[in-house]
Amino acid sequence: MQKWIMSGVLTIAVVMAIVLMFTLPGKEQVAEEEKPTMPEVTMDAAAAEAVVKDQGCISCHGDQLQGAVGPNLQKIGSQLSAEEIYTIITKGKGGMPSFKDKLKAEEIANVAQWLAEKK
């Protein structure tokens, strides 16, 4: 009887291991989630400003990006690159939420480039 129980437990463990092998993300997927790749876009300042206003960024960063609940972004380009800003907007950071499900990657890239020019 014990042999049947042990073989059943072993079988379940092997099946679970196989399922996990095919469902857990791979190294490439984890790396992409950690540092998303910024797409190439032509910066459009008017579109970037519209996204910032439409998405409510000014509620935390202020209408002049002077900072409020969130940090001052008026000279963020002297501290962070466009790629770093893109990663923060995409993934979120601290109290800032992720916008990857709310905006297209191109919109985020445009805003990141616009902010990176603020020095």
Q: CATH class of the largest domain, please?
A: Mainly Alpha
Question: What is the alpha-carbon Rg in Å?
Answer: 22 Å
Q: Which stretches are poorly predicted, pLDDT < 50 over at least 5 residues?
A: none
The CATH homologous superfamily of the largest domain is called Cytochrome c-like domain
The CATH topology of the largest domain is what? Cytochrome Bc1 Complex, Chain D, domain 2
Oligomer: single chain
Number of domains: 2
Write the element-wise H/E pattern from the N-terminal end onward: HHHHHH
Distance between the termini: 74 Å
Instruction: Give the helix tally.
Output: 6
Summarize the main sheet: none
Structural class: mainly alpha
Number of strands: 0
Report the CATH architecture of the largest domain. Answer: Orthogonal Bundle
**Shape annotation:** elongated
| Mean pLDDT across residues | 89
What share of the residues does DSSP label as strand, in percent? under 5%
* Fraction in helix: 55-70%
Structure summarized in a few sentences:
The chain is mainly alpha-helical and 119 residues long.
Short key terms for the protein model shown above:
119 residues; mainly alpha; 6 helices; 55% helix; elongated; Cytochrome_c550/c551-like; Cytochrome Bc1 Complex, Chain D, domain 2
